[in-house]
Amino acid sequence: MEKPFDPEFILTVIPRLLPFLSVTFGILLGTILVGLPLGFLLAKAKLGKNGIARRISEWTINASRCTPSIVMLFIMFYGLPKLFLTILGVDINGWPKAFFVTAALGLLFAASAAEIMRSAYQAVDRGQYEAAVTTGLTGFQAFYRIVLPQVFVVALPNLGNSFIALLKEGSLAYTIGLIDIMGEGNLIIQRNYGAYALETYSALSVIYWTLTILIEQGFHRLESYYSKGFRPR
């Protein structure tokens, strides 16, 4: 006989899930550290004059954006060890599962970040860079002091959305055995022989809703602070 819905179990299970937030945040941070620099390089190549680099960047971005997250995760988890073993003769099957999750989601995030950076850069009037250079600033100084702050403001809303998407996509880590809050939630359901599934997933929803709201509000405050006096083209 199926158990009736027990709202009190939600309050009981949340404290059991919270310790695994460190894994969830670790995946999010690692993905950002991998994806942002790679996204910058892809955006720079796509905006550059080198035709080969531009085509490689476009292909990488399109391929990554067209690949579902779970497919990319399985490709990295099952394919990367074979690639390392075949080409380098190195067995990485024993490496932490977090490495494969970070590599997969980092590549996917890099594609989104590259498009965000590219569109934000193109939203800033080119004349500001040229005016800064004519006043005696070097090209790097003009970009760093004049262009980059404006690019940052334009990119913030979309970056916030991407961070929220990353938080949710990180829940796929349990499919390869990495235990984050989603993985622990599934283990709790298994320990109860399938009972309290709705209550456990409701608890997970509460946690994800809370984290999403916090990230959204954090980016909203950043945008409000850094956009003072800024008027996009």
Describe the structure.
There is one protein chain. The protein has 233 residues and is mostly helical. The chain has helices spanning 7-17, 21-47, 51-65, 69-87, 97-123, 126-134, 139-169, 181-191, 197-226. Helix 4 (69-87) crosses helix 5 (97-123) and helix 5 (97-123) crosses helix 7. The longest helix has 31 residues, at 139-169. It starts with 6 loop residues before the first helix and ends in a 7-residue tail after the last helix. 28% of the residues are buried.
SSE pattern: HHHHHHHHH
Number of helices: 9
Shape: flat
How many β-strand stretches? 0
Whole-number average pLDDT? 90
Strand content: under 5%
> Which radius of gyration do the C-alpha atoms yield?
22 Å
Show unreliable segments: none
| Distance linking N and C termini | 63 Å
Major pleated sheet = none
What percent of the residues sit in helical stretches (DSSP H or I)?
over 70%
Q: Which structural class matches the secondary elements?
A: mainly alpha
Structure described in brief:
Helices cover 77% and strands 0% of the residues. The protein is an all-alpha fold and 233 residues long. Helix 8 packs antiparallel against helix 9 (197-226).
